[in-house]
Each structure stands twice: as C-alpha cells, then as structure tokens.
C-alpha cells in the first residue's frame, strides 16, 4: 500500500530523478515508500537511478544516443503462422525507466499492432505480467536492463495459450480461482449486526497472503502447473485458498479443506520446486503458504515433523 498520495508519489520520483540528473545523491525521503513490497521498492529505486544517470550522460554529451534491441514475441491468430521474435530498437536516453515504457513507445511509434495487457502502471492490477529476460515479472515494475550491448527478450507467460503477441488466455486460471470461493463465508450474522470482528493478531496472520494481485507470474513459472493445468490449482489459487482457510472470521474452514482434498491433484501436485516464490513480483511466498496449509490442517499431528523433514 502506498503511504503517500499519488501526487506525492509522482513528485517523489521526479525529485529523485532530478537529483541524479544534477549529479547529486537523492535524499532517502525522495523515494515514495511501498509498504510490504520490498522488491517493488528496490526495482523502483534502481529504475530511477538508471533513468537519471542516463539523462545526465546524454545531457553532458558523453554517450549520446544509447540504442538497445528488444526482441518481442509475435503471433497473430488472424494469419496463423509460426511465432517469431521481432526486433525493435529504442533509445534508452529518451525512454522511461520500465519495460512497460518501452512497450508503450514501440506501440506508439513503431508498430501499433503490438498487443499486450496493461492498466495501472503501479504494480497493483497485475495486467502486464509477461516473461522478461527469462523471468516472469510485471512490465511496469521491471526496470530496463541498461546494458545496450545485449538485447532483451520479452515473451508471454510460459505454457499458456497465446491470444495474440504477449496476451495469454487466463480463463482457466480465473475459473480455478473462482472454484475456491474466494470470499468470506459465514453461517450467521455478526453479533452486533454490522461487521465481523478480528483481533490484530488474527489479522496479522493474513500478511503475505492477501496482497496477491492474481498476475499469474507464479503459476506461469510452475512446472507442475505447466503439465497439469486442468487438475492442479497452481500456486496463486492455493495461496488464496490458504488466505481464506487462515481467516478467523470465516466459518467454512472444514468445507474448504474438504474441497481441496477431494481430488488429490488439486493440492498435492505441488512438489516445492520454488519457482513460484522466485517469480513473484510482490515478494510473496506461495510455496511456504502451500506447505504450511498442509502441515497445519491436512496432516495428522504425529506425521507433521516427519513430512517436514522429508520435504526439505
């Protein structure tokens, strides 16, 4: 959650960029604070540094234009042929700092037919998930690799049906998410007739779970989800399942767990590969959440230490 308003946030980036452009070190307060998302904060600071330094170098005439090649996956369903990588060249000195800025510029100035999803530009909606240089990420949070000597490759999320270019079909992903009934379920009205109360300690148990934005970066990186997308729910859906199982206000925990275990493949296909955690742009840990759900709710108490040892 942003601790500052959107206007202050934009001014923070401008102040930091001006500092690098002028050759001074920005103050700590120049960067807006992104609570709970250290990777987003780290990426943002890195992008501002690179952008500011690049502008400064250009202004001083040290390097002039800094053109970088971007190899982008292309496929059009209206004229189906083999997919291919198309090269585009962008001057980094006059581009924004993030990969999404490059895509926007290519679409506006070079090829309006390039298709991709985007919306908030702030790492909140999850629309611009794609594979960038081998890792799933959000284009709006991923800084451009400033090394112009090597091209960057941008492809759709792996092992998902491609609709067009960088747009993938997430229908199955959302159907699986809906199957866990991701909303508060109770068997009666609250005592005061107004709201369901929760202690600060109980609320804290949801940290690291509720922040998921359903971008599908984790599911797109999971080998088990690649091979069993119809049966295995995948890390994003299972993370959210654990979020509702852990919510003290929810009164259908037993029913939720029963639904997860009625088909063994839904949950137990997880092999703890760890790609989901490594590719999460929000620094969440789906692998840990899935294993914790198994340990706390699904294994008999006398088997928990044994399973924990074998799973390491």
From TrEMBL:
GO CC term, one of those recorded: mitochondrial inner membrane
4Fe-4S ferredoxin-type domain ranges (all copies) = 202-232
List the GO molecular function terms: 2 iron, 2 sulfur cluster binding; 3 iron, 4 sulfur cluster binding; 4 iron, 4 sulfur cluster binding; electron transfer activity; metal ion binding; succinate dehydrogenase (quinone) activity
Predominantly, its location class is mitochondrion
Q: What's its EC?
A: 1.3.5.1
Its BP terms in the Gene Ontology are: respiratory electron transport chain; tricarboxylic acid cycle
Reaction it catalyzes: a quinone + succinate = fumarate + a quinol
The record lists the membrane-crossing segments as none
Domain 2Fe-2S ferredoxin-type: start-end pairs: 68-160
Provide this UniProt record's keywords sorted from A to Z.
2Fe-2S, 3Fe-4S, 4Fe-4S, Electron transport, Iron, Iron-sulfur, Membrane, Metal-binding, Mitochondrion, Mitochondrion inner membrane, Oxidoreductase, Transport, Tricarboxylic acid cycle
List cofactor names only: [4Fe-4S] cluster; [2Fe-2S] cluster; [3Fe-4S] cluster
Family the UniProt entry places it in: Belongs to the succinate dehydrogenase/fumarate reductase iron-sulfur protein family.
Q: What does this protein do?
A: Iron-sulfur protein (IP) subunit of succinate dehydrogenase (SDH) that is involved in complex II of the mitochondrial electron transport chain and is responsible for transferring electrons from succinate to ubiquinone (coenzyme Q).
Protein name as catalogued: Succinate dehydrogenase [ubiquinone] iron-sulfur subunit, mitochondrial
């Amino acid at each position: 959650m942003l601790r500052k308003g959107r206007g202050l946030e934009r001014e923070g980036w401008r102040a930091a960029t001006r500092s690098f452009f002028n050759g001074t070190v920005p103050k700590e307060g120049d960067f807006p604070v992104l609570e709970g998302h250290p990777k987003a904060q780290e990426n943002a600071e890195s992008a501002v540094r690179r952008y500011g330094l690049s502008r400064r170098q250009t202004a001083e005439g040290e390097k002039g234009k800094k053109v970088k090649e971007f190899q982008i996956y292309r496929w059009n369903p209206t004229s189906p042929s083999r997919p291919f990588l198309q090269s585009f060249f962008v001057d980094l000195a006059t581009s924004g700092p993030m990969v999404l800025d490059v895509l926007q510029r290519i679409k506006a100035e070079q090829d309006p037919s390039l298709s991709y999803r985007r919306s908030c530009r702030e790492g909140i909606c999850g629309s611009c998930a794609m594979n960038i240089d081998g890792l799933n990420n959000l284009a709006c949070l991923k800084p451009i690799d400033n090394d112009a000597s090597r091209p960057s490759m941008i492809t759709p999320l792996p092992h998902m049906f491609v609709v067009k270019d960088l747009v993938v079909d997430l229908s199955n992903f959302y159907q699986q998410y809906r199957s866990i009934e991701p909303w508060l379920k109770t068997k009666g009205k609250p005592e005061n007739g107004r709201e369901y109360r929760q202690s600060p300690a109980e609320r804290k148990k949801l940290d690291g779970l509720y922040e998921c934005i359903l971008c599908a970066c984790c599911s797109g990186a999971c080998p088990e989800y690649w091979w069993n997308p119809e049966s295995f729910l995948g890390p994003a859906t299972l993370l959210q399942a654990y979020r509702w199982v852990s919510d003290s206000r929810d009164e259908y925990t037993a029913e939720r767990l029963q639904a997860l275990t009625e088909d063994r493949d839904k949950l137990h296909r997880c092999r703890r590969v760890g790609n989901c955690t490594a590719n999460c742009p929000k620094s969440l840990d789906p692998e840990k959440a899935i294993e914790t759900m198994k340990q706390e709710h699904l294994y008999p108490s006398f088997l928990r230490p044994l399973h924990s040892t074998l799973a390491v």
